Amino acid sequence: MIEVKDLKKHLPHLFELARFLVVGGGGAVVNYFMVQWGLNAFPNLYKPIITVTCHALLIVPVYLLQRSFTFRSDANHVQAFPKYFTTQLVSLGINFTISTIIFPIFHIDNKIGAILVIGLTSILSMLALKFWAFKK
Length: 136
What we know:
Number of strands: 0
Number of helices: 4
Structural class: mainly alpha
Order of helices and strands: HHHH
Strand content: under 5%
Shape: globular
Largest sheet: none
Low-confidence stretches: none
Mean pLDDT: 91
């Protein structure tokens, strides 16, 4: 049975996880609507350009929210931002690799695959941000 003192010990980590999910999830929702708008507004533009541009526009605002709100870090921007950016690039690389190589090989449905990729990249991103980019 979980004791109250054990729960209190882990409560800050649970709140941090909740903040991470709110910021990341909020960013994903905003990104989704931006992409939809971009696809409708620029139907002749190559679709990956729209999706990458929308993602890129959210990098700085989400970085600032993750740094200040989620991890409550006072890490120097000169050191933290390149690490954050690297984490984003690695996450995109993992997403791209799994989506274009692994899913077709194992015939994974796109919807199930999206959930798996989002889950995996979210976990890896949180660990990289917490213990590397915004390490206290």
